[in-house]
Amino acid sequence: MTSTSARPIALAHRFADELPELALSWRADEAPEPRLLALNEVLAADLGLDAAWLRTDDGLRLLTGERPPEGAAPVAQAYAGHQFGNYSPRLGDGRALLLGELATPDGRVVDLHLKGSGRTPFSRGGDGLAVVGPMLREFVISEAMHGLGIPTTRALAVVGTGRVVERETYQPGAVLARVASSHLRVGSFQYARATDDLALLRRLADVAIARHDPDLADADHPYRALFEAVVARQARLVARWMLVGFVHGVMNTDNMTISGETIDYGPCAFLDVFDPRTVFSSIDTGGRYAYGNQPAAAQWNLARFAEALLPLLADDQDAAVAYAVEALNGFAEQYNLAWTQGMRAKLGLPEGLAADVLDGLVQELFALLQANPVDFTGFFRRLADAARGDREPARALFLDLAGIDGWLERWAALAPDAVAMDRVNPVHIPRNHLVEAALAAATDGDLGPFEELVAVVRDPFTPRLGLERYAEPAPDDFGRYTTFCGT
User: Fold this and answer.
1) What is the pLDDT of residues 134-167, one digit of tens each?
2) What is the dihedral of CA 187, 83, 331, 78, to 10 degrees?
């Protein structure tokens, strides 16, 4: 049996050792009265961690960063970034720490990372803290994304600190512990490039290849291959966001990972009614990161990645630029392929369907969804009923009955597969009104709604008897939804 004084966890410090120019040794603030709010026991088991020990005082002090394991070397990571198009040469972990790298029982290496652990030299005037609501938001949304099969960082735990934090009001403080394949970002490469230290940039690229694409080390042009791999991963990732109606909300270059995982669930949300112009974030007043703009925003970020990598792509700058442009042009093709395949699956249609037939159906459908307007997630789930012969549940969502009747006739003639549709169209997403209700209750000390919501979204494709309200869109009186970064 593990004693409460034991520390059954070992953390390496590879990032700190290999890239000291991007790492500042730092320690987390003390949590006056740590209290476990949420623990991801399934993830803990996957990581080889003892959930019972994590619930002890020593475990909680690890999860807040106060008592890292012996030999660990926590650091705040340095990175730059374009935030809403504006370049900041020095961002970094202003309220976060990389505790270190954890080797899992299945042979993977993941980062153990904290948010809300206190001020660092990168805090830029902020207090470095976090509050309960936004940290639980990251827990529930990242678990939902994992359940949907979308690459994501994962929340391991949220611990209340016992500290009161000043925001618009005074709120209870919290720390999030999360894991990721790594926290290497486009912004990491922008920071290294800005130093004009080519050896550092090369070393960073080598670390990225070793961590995420070890097979590329033997490629004829490893750094070109790395860039192409990141472009492909991001194209697939954003396509999957679009297919489930996810709006990230803050697609800055420091929030784009090299691994292709979704990271930093700040002002994120999911579509209710379909509208490409949808913006939830309070600070995205110009709609830069609106739902329909996300593919273009991702490609723009990858162009910044290419600029950072230029010295590694070719000795001659003109040749490097020409290669980068060609590789970037591949983003649209790969995104379109992933999105088209995903949409074909959502509609239950067979592989090999003529592209013009599918394109025509999709364009007509999305025009109908936007004009009526129609709940995005609910429609696709009800469409499986139509594939089984009962069109009324889907049809009832539309005001333009003639329009949807004609579309359903053309779609049904292609013999859609209802069972296949049920495998890719979720019943449950983190509905915005339910997320807000759960976070408000948790902030007031009632974790019940949060725990029930997490349990539902972890298994998004299974209908739940008695929990039908989790599949319904927001009531009319919910109003326009606005999210905040949680800083």
Assistant:
1) 999 999 999 999 999 999 999 999 999 999 999 8
2) 10
The residues assigned a catalytic role are 254
97, β-bridge pairs: 114
Is residue 439 over pLDDT 80? yes
Neighbours of 210 (CB within 10 A): 14
As a whole number of angstroms, the distance between CA 255 and CA 233 comes to: 14
Query: Domain locations in the chain?
Result: 14-182, 187-345
Q: Tell me: pLDDT of 124 over 90.
A: no
Q: Is the predicted pLDDT of residue 411 greater than 80, yes or no?
A: yes
Q: What is the pLDDT of residue 88?
A: 95
Mean pLDDT, the chain, integer: 95
CB neighbours (10 Å) of residue 480?
A: 5
Nearest to 425 by CA among 350, 482, 369, 344: 344
Q: Please give the backbone phi and psi of residue 38, each rounded to the nearest 5 degrees, phi first.
A: -155, 135
Angstrom distance (rounded) from CA 420 to CA 3? 48
| Token reading at 276 | 């490409």
Structure-token match 């969502």, residue found: 397
The backbone torsions φ and ψ at residue 247, rounded to the nearest 5 degrees and listed phi first, read -120, 110
> Rounded to whole angstroms, how far apart are CA atoms 283 and 402?
40
How far apart CA 46 and CA 143 sit, in angstroms, is 14
Position of tokens 């490039």?
193
In 340-361, which positions are buried (b, 16+ CB within 10 angstroms) versus exposed (e)?
bebbbbbbbbeeeeeeeebeeb
Q: How confident is the model at residue 477 (pLDDT cuts 50, 70, 90)?
A: confident
Q: Which residue has the tokens 């991702």?
A: 298
